[in-house]
Amino acid sequence: MPRLDNFIALDGADKLASLEAFGLLLYAKFAIARVPPTRWRSHFMTVAPAESGSRDIATIRRVRLAILRALSLTVGADNCLPQALAARWMLERRGIPANLFIGTQCDAEGKPRIHAWLKVGDEWVTGLCDEARYTLIASGDAETA
Question: pTM for this structure?
Answer without folding.
Answer: 0.81
